[in-house]
Structure formats: C-alpha cells, structure tokens
Write a structure and sequence with these properties.
The protein is α/β, with parallel strands linked by helices and about 375 residues long. The protein has 11 helices and 8 strands. It folds into 2 domains: about 110 residues, no CATH class; about 240 residues, Alpha/Beta hydrolase fold, catalytic domain (Rossmann fold). The protein is about 30% helix and about 15% strand. An 8-stranded mixed β-sheet has the order 1-2-4-3-5-6-7-8, with helices on both faces.
C-alpha cells in the first residue's frame, strides 16, 4: 500500500526505524489505520506527498506534521481520530490529553482525573502525566513491573495505593518539585504502562521476551518525548520487571536520558552495568524487606535476568533505602529512596543543595 505525506515530514536520518519485534497489540493502532488517518487529516493533495516507509511514522516526523497544522485542524484531528492521536508519539501533549479524555469519558474510566498521554484499554496501555510536559525542563518516566494492569493503574493491585504507578509518579513529582524549589526548574513525571508486563511470577516473568517487546515501545515513547521537548533532560526509572525492559532499551536510549534508576529489580539482563552500553548514570535500590533479594543473580538458558543491579559487583550507584517497607514502597512518602530519586529527577545532587546538574533551554510545543 502506497502511503504519502509532505516531503518536509519524511523520516530524518537520525531517527531509528521501528523494530519488527514490536508488541502487535501496541502497534495495532499505529499501523495502516494511523497512516490513513494522517492522510485524511492533512489538507495537502495526495500527489504532493512522498511515501512514508514505516508501519508507524517516526515521532520526529509526527512532531513536524503537527507543527504545520493550525489549532482548528488539530482539534478536528482529535475529534475525528481520538484513538490515533491519543497514541501518537510526537503529537503535542495537549492534543493527546484531549484525545484520550474523549475515549475515557464514556467508559469506566470517565471519573479518573489527570492528563493522560496514552490510553488504550484493549491493549492494556496507559500513561498519566504530572506537571507541565509541554514546558518541562526535566522529565521522568516511570516503568512499572509485573502484574500492572490498566484497571489497577490508579488504585493499585489489590486496592493498595502504594502499588499504583499513578500514585508513585504523583509522589515522585511532588518530591521532585520540592527538591527543585528556588531553581526555576519545570518538572514532569510520567507513569508509563506502555508495554504488556507479565502476569504473576511464572516463566514469563523469568524470561526477557516481554521485556524485549516492551523495550521497543519504551524507545518509541522516549523518542516522542525528545521530539516535543528536545532540550529536556530525562530520567528513566523502573520498578521490578520494568528494570528488565529498561535493561534491553538502555543501549539505544538517546543522549537526553541522563539518569537511569531501578529499584526492586530482579536484574537488567546483564552481569555488569558496563554491559548495558549506556552513558547515563545508573542508580539502584534494594531494601532488606524486598523479596527480590532472594532472586538468584544469574541468567541460564534464557531464564533469569542476570545480576541484580543493587549488588555491589554490578556497578550501580546506591540509593538509600531507609523507610522502605518492602518491594512496592520505594516511592512511598517518607522513604529515603523517594527523596533521593526526586533529587536525581530535579537535577539536584542527592543529599546536597548543589546547583542543578544541567541548565536547559526550552522550545515548547503545546
């Protein structure tokens, strides 16, 4: 099928093509239907559009596409194609919020408040943003672990809020804003359930297949963030199995990712931090009451995730764990790990009143 868009929106050489190993459920809405929607939404004649060569357009190309649209055209695109816009990496956050709110208003999630950057109930994908992503200098992405589902995204598994990614991200955002007080730093924190985590703790949780699929989606998501906020510094945080996702993605994360933090991690798929191939600083936390301490730090015949990152031999920077009551409490209020990671997200040296690690310029796309 031939597909075309304006030549100024074709993929730049620096943007990676999408991997053929992407999660089929995640990519379903981003395939031909998405390209058809983009063709229908653009005012240009088909004869003026060269071919898009990917099953889903690169976030950089999407960003340029929407920059060329006026507010009326953008709003019409949301009205006609809310599911497309809501999942479209590189689209302006404000349009994605509006698109996902349209999808959520008639279902069981209609009372859920917040800015939803991603919502796809069928594929089990959701992302909520705390703070002003459109103008953020520093962005944090929280990748949850096994057993995380859309239905429990806000309330937590078993109704326990401390296990909810949305609750954890909210705690992190409040703490990061407090850590950056007086520094004129704009911070956004995103709880991102953009992949399909394993259910339970069986063979799927011991293997890296779902982590590999999730890494493709995480890379695409981060590419979308760098498209709309090219000068923002990004911290990627991961809990439990989410750290396996980040471990696979680490080598290909862009330079804007300055820090990676994992906690309650069974492993990142490697034996040493250097094997991740990332230039970002790596932080790791493992509390005495966390059951992952009993996970063998091995990977044999495709089972296991390698050495646990909090092990001294791994080479990660330690995160204090005072007040961490168990596996799901690293971002709970009062935990030393929350304060430490909030400082990292804010660009403040943990445990000091140092100036931000990096000054950033902004080029907002709203």
């Amino acid at each position: 099928m031939t597909s075309t868009v304006p030549s100024k929106f074709s993929r730049p050489p620096s943007v990676r093509p999408e991997s053929a190993t992407a999660d089929p459920a995640a990519g379903k809405a981003a395939g031909p239907d998405l390209l058809d929607a983009l063709r229908q939404a653009t005012p240009r004649a088909a004869a003026d559009r060269p071919e898009w060569t990917s099953s889903r357009p690169s976030p950089a190309a999407v960003c340029r596409f929407f920059c060329d649209l006026g507010p009326v055209e953008g709003a019409e695109f949301v009205r006609r194609h809310p599911k497309v816009v809501g999942q479209l990496e590189g689209a302006p956050p404000a349009l994605r919020y509006a698109a996902n709110r349209r999808q959520m208003r008639l279902g069981p999630y209609r009372s859920w408040e917040g800015q939803y950057l991603l919502f796809d109930e069928d594929a089990g994908r959701m992302a909520v943003v705390y703070g002003d992503l459109c103008h953020a200098d520093r962005i944090a992405v929280l990748v949850p672990g096994a057993n995380t589902r859309v239905a429990d995204f806000r309330r937590g598994l078993g109704g326990r809020e401390h296990r909810a990614p949305a609750q954890q991200a909210g705690n992190l955002h409040r703490a990061a804003v407090a850590a950056a007080e007086g520094r004129n730093t704009r911070i956004a924190v995103i709880a991102w359930l953009g992949y399909r985590p394993p259910s339970g703790f069986g063979l799927a949780a011991a293997r890296q297949r779902l982590a590999t699929l999730g890494a493709v989606e995480l890379l695409h998501f981060v590419d979308g963030l760098t498209a709309v906020r090219p000068r923002a510094a990004i911290t990627v945080l991961a809990h439990s199995y989410g750290s396996a996702v980040v471990g696979v993605a680490a080598r290909r994360l862009p330079a804007q990712v300055t820090d990676i933090a994992v906690f309650g991690s069974p492993g990142m798929g490697v034996r040493r931090a250097a094997e991740l191939g990332s230039r970002a600083r790596l932080w790791a936390a493992e509390a005495p009451a966390d059951w992952t301490r009993r996970v063998p730090g091995v990977r044999v015949l495709g089972l296991g995730h390698g050495q646990r990152p909090a092990h001294p031999a791994f080479g990660a920077r330690p995160v204090p764990i005072a007040g961490v009551a168990g596996h799901d409490y690293y971002l709970a209020e009062g935990a030393a790990s929350l304060a430490h990671l909030a400082a990292v997200v804010a660009g403040v040296e943990p445990g000091s009143a140092a100036a931000p690690q990096r000054d950033v310029e902004t080029n907002p796309i709203s």
